[in-house]
Write a structure and sequence with these properties.
Chain lengths: 246, 228
Amino acid sequence: MQTNKELIKTVDLHKSFGKLHVLQGVNETVKKGEVVTVIGPSGGGKSTFLRCLNLLEVPEKGQIIFDGVDITQKGINIDLHRQKMGMVFQNFNVFPHLDVCKNITLTPVLTKKKTQAEAEDMAKELLNRVGLIDKLHEMPNKLSGGQKQRLAIVRALAMEPEVMLFDEPTSALDPEMVGEVLDVIKGLVNTGMTSVIVTHEMRFAREVSDRVLFMAEGNVMESGKPEDMFGNPQTPRFKEFLSKVL
Amino acid sequence: MDFGVIGANIAKLWTNYWHIYILEGVAITLKLTFIAVLLGAVLGVVVAILKMSKSKIIRFLITVYIEVIRGTPLLLQLYIFYFVLPEIFPIFDFNEFTWVAIALCINSSAYVSEIFRSGIQSVDIGQTEAARSLGLSSGQTMMRIVLPQAVKNILPALGNEFIMMLKETSLASTFFIGDLMTAHLKIKGATYLMLESLVITGLIYLCMTYPLSKLVEAFERKMKNADK
Ligand SMILES: Nc1ncnc2c1ncn2[C@@H]1O[C@H](COP(=O)(O)OP(=O)(O)O)[C@@H](O)[C@H]1O
Ligand SMILES: [Mg+2]
């Protein structure tokens, strides 16, 4: 489903935390419809890279071109651009004071994309898709981890984003719940949703990716089609990583 | 000490003077406390917001404001507002009650601002990140996501601040402002029954603070259970 339209492009992205130079000039492009997974050792800068894409972290140097607009420019209204980028976090971050329905409808209604009634219709449809329709009026503390993460995915989808960013969406889950969340993500990428997915699930990465990025020490060290990456790794650093995780 | 006599004196004091204790003393104490905590809360929100300002100078000034107020005795602050400021600013033609009320407001604002700040900081940063990543503005995130969750920490602390302030207003009796402690001083002066009057005054303070602190406790318990 991948097209040739560049949806996100980073140019020489640098980010430091104090003296720690976490991103050291990342140049990457995500095309519309493309599914990119990011793998690599912990501390390699995967999360920071992902969080730069919607400016949760502000890079000190470089550009992020989203849908043709450099969102690192001064004076840009980042909220409008973030509405088109969904993000799913490791710790779910569902809103505990709102019921499942309100978790989903709050943002589309507040940002005037939808009326309450339209948003609720959409919430029901999305919850149906991920098997949570019977939880419509539950509070999040009644949900399991896997259910919370599915809710978080649906909450992001309700904004009808152009791209979904996943930061280790299954890392905080009990093993028996990983599958249900991965299935939802698989279903989603099969609909053609552009996705950038940081993950430690190698089988999953192999299965869903159009392209895999191996990130370590603040840069993309190797990237390519999953069959090439996993079948014929090139750099010693990536080989070493694979020998540890496979 | 004859407890029988003391008991009889207390009964006598209460019968003769209850209206001064209650209608004057308690009324003015409550009025001062409400003014101090409510206006102090409004001012405290402003202070808390300024403390999170992007400007280093503003943050520094606010830190100084909070530290000075929390680091010096309320009695000293009352002296400054009662004796010094009216001299420096004669254009502010306030009466004595107003100067005392202003001092209490300012004092309360420093404590309330810290209550708000720590209440807000107690909410997981992931909540803010999730809201912002969905495209909500920082204001919407504060109003719809952070504050509703911070309330369960903020409200009990505000309740405790109210209880503290209710007791602290007794310092206003230094200036004979008419609060409950002033009522005690008046009645003691008229009757020379200090111990008896102190017992009555103390019991009245307790009657106000004890139910309030039970209320705060009940609220906290309810919030804890709601989390489960
Ligand atoms: N907010 C932060 N403040 C300071 N250091 C951070 C912050 N976020 C990440 N780091 C550091 O940056 C490095 C890269 O982190 P991260 O991007 O989370 O890596 P990964 O997701 O690949 O594990 C780590 O050393 C981490 O400790
Ligand atoms: Mg990470």
